[in-house]
Amino acid sequence: MKKLLTTILSLGVAASAALAGDLSLTAVKVSDKLDTVSADSALWSKAKFSTVDLYPQTAIEFNDKEAIEANKANKGKKVQVAALHNGSEIAVLVKWADGSKNVQGIKCTDTYSDGFALQFAGSTKKAQPLPYIGMGSEGRPVVVHLQKATEKVYEPNGNKDVSTQINRQQTGVFGKELAEYDAKVASLANTDFERVFVGEGFRSLTEIKDKSVKSNASMKYENKGWTGTLVRPLKDDYISASGTLPVAIAVWDGAKHGRNGLKLLSSWVAINLEGSKANNAVVAEATEVSKGDAVKGKLAAETNGCAGCHQIDKSAPAGTMAPSLVNIGGYSTAAYLRESILKPSAVVVPGYNRNAHANTPWYTIEKGKRVSTMTDYSFLDKGTVDDIVAYLKTLKVEVE
């Protein structure tokens, strides 16, 4: 019986590894202007839709009991993605199911909104691994477009109109005059929560406020699901697409206290610009299926003590000595996993983990830079590294 169970496990891991490749999709070229494209635009009938899998981001567990409980049984989610371009702009549409509409209000601090984000690699001309998803990596910047579902939010300081910064109960007016005051405030209110950030490593994410990025994002809820759209230039001060644009997708569920790192996340997706020569290096990295043996990789990971610091199985206690790897195979490319094994200080997830013991920090500071306390496994032979990568790519929950 034990031998039979081992064989079944081996077949399951091998099958998962065979399906571990990520994908590329095509941005259909159109001649139309795209700056005002939204979910309802007829132009999307020309697009080619692809399915992209998103996985729960589980590197660091939140210190929020209610959030942990709400997300403990999370599965992956399939989203529909399409893209259009006209040579100077790109429009991306993301459609996902969500049984509850959660809109950020202004009356409570413990309610959260649904939302989505698209992350673009800053530059892909230099031959190097794509940036870490979420924050970018040193020397490998990313641009993140965030859109949240919000009610009308009045921000008087942004309008510098002091006459409307008074609570309506303190205006001293009634009836028609109060209605006129309410209408004026409503006309100044902002219903669009769109933010753009640039990042080049953890704790470097910075909002771009100088209007140097011209973008237009929106969200629409209908039929128990959201459709999010984003339009931005193919080239500006932050990105320069050349045939292929690497994009990562994230969605938040406000009903499950989703915010910050509590989200569903894709790996890098290579969007090829129709009519342009694809960047084969980027496509190859985004779609790579490890040539290693996942079964041997599982044994190699155990032999080299990976589980001693990392949480690998969801049934194990949350790791406090290193980031959790529970869904690492869902939102990481094989290239990133390989880099993490051979050069663990290339990307260091921030700590110190507040739940960790003071004697087990994730990194040290040397000459102003974070140096991972993880063992440098560059002594392993290439075959063993490939095997471990193949195994890590199988670490992901079921997709709904």
Automatic annotation (TrEMBL):
Keywords: Electron transport, Heme, Iron, Metal-binding, Signal, Transport. CDD domains: DOMON_EBDH. InterPro entries: Cyt-c552/DMSO_Rdtase_haem-bd, Cyt_c-like_dom, Cyt_c-like_dom_sf, DMSO_Rdtase_II_haem_b-bd_su. Pfam families: Cytochrom_C, EB_dh. One of its GO terms (molecular function) is metal ion binding. One of its GO terms (cellular component) is periplasmic space. This is Cytochrome c-552/DMSO reductase-like, heme-binding domain. It comes from Sulfuricurvum kujiense (strain ATCC BAA-921 / DSM 16994 / JCM 11577 / YK-1). The lineage of its organism: Bacteria, Pseudomonadati, Campylobacterota, Epsilonproteobacteria, Campylobacterales.
